[in-house]
Amino acid sequence: MASREEKLATFADPSIVSSHSLNIIEGWIDSQQRLQAQRGKISFHNLPRFLDGTSSPIVPQTHSSRRRFRIISFPRLENGRLKLGFPQPTYHQIRQSWCLHDLTLEAFLNNNGILSSLETQDTTCILMKVAASRSTGFDTVSISHHRAANLTNVLYYSLENEDGVFDALLQHPERCLQPSFFAAVLYRCHQQRIERFRVILDDEIVGVERGSKFGGPGRLFGHRYRHEEPVVEMQGDSMTKKLSYVQTELAVLGHLARSSLEMGGWLVEMARQEREGGLDTDASAVTEEKGEKELGMRMSENVRKTLDEAEYVRRRAATVVSQIQAVNDRVQSQTTFLLNSSLHNQTDYTAAIALETKKDSSAMKAIAALTIVFLPGTFVATVFSMNIFDWSGGEGAEPRMSKYIYVYWIVTIPLTLLVMFAWWVWLRRDLGRFRNVRSLSDLRTMEKNV
């Protein structure tokens, strides 16, 4: 009967997966009692025989009973939280043949991150899923160690840096005899990606600080970032958008870092239990052959190394959490500065508009006053009321202009000039009050003094 997770999951189409080959690693004891480890590939059609141990592209058939670990990695073929990179029958075959953790499929579909171990009479199972993110990946590993056969089976899924994980395993094949080492390698690679992600965000905020010319570590003491610090010209809108992007990524990174720190604590506790004998290692299954005796004696040293490295990476994770908080504070500082600058600019624009409006209002008042006072009086009184033209001539006589017309011009022109001069003096005095107005507060002070 299909489980709840199987009903939710979207398994890969066998026709699509069949064209892919899968990366594998196998470790075995050779005829000289030495541990060998080698990387290879296997086609999807040969996968069933590889899973049940009847065929291998790496281990000679004569040494098939002396396998110590088998690793297979399935890639993430499609994006989507519920989409898997293998068909449903393949998953059932892997889980049954390798006795994987019952919660393996649930971990594949989970985005929150988990590290769990399950101890039974015959096997030790470890399940690890990093906190998922498009920026750092969706790495998952399911480990099953069979004590009687002294064999560890490892299923990696959706590795962001498969080559990095495989190279780390091949550098220390003797440590692959310890089941928790496979989880420790994945944890370290994931933490390295988190740190690179943090560096990228730090570089982005440094660019914003250069563009805004505000803030920046060491500025208070006159230090520069580099010997040749470039001048960055950025617009306020572009800086605000970049800060919003950084803020979003910081929220994701903060969750990843805190989850990684918590997962590091779980991994350290697991390795400590192995060192103290809480998890039964393969020492009881080691034969009396000289080579495997030596490997068994080195198990305790390998467990100690894994514990030390897990504790080291966990402390690095704690440092990253603190660094992320510092970057977040710098983002908040830049955001506050840009918002305040924007508000200040808007205030200046408002003051400038008010100032120009005030000037226009004064000018319009003067023009209106001149129009009201002089235009009606000049037009009506001068043209129609004054005796310039003689309209009472006899019948057939033409209108005659008075010989005293010059008196009109003698009076009108000086009077017009005098009034225009007075208007100019008044307008200049009124507009002169705005010369020292540079802000809204200056405008309010001037209005109070009027």
TrEMBL record:
InterPro entries: CorA_TM1_TM2 (IPR045863). This is Uncharacterized protein. One of its GO terms (cellular component) is membrane. It comes from Eremomyces bilateralis CBS 781.70. Keywords: Membrane, Transmembrane, Transmembrane helix. Its main location: membrane. It is a multi-pass membrane protein. The chain crosses the membrane at residues 366-386, 406-426. The keyword Ligase does not apply. Signal peptide: none annotated. Gene3D superfamilies: Magnesium transport protein CorA, transmembrane region. It is found in: Membrane.
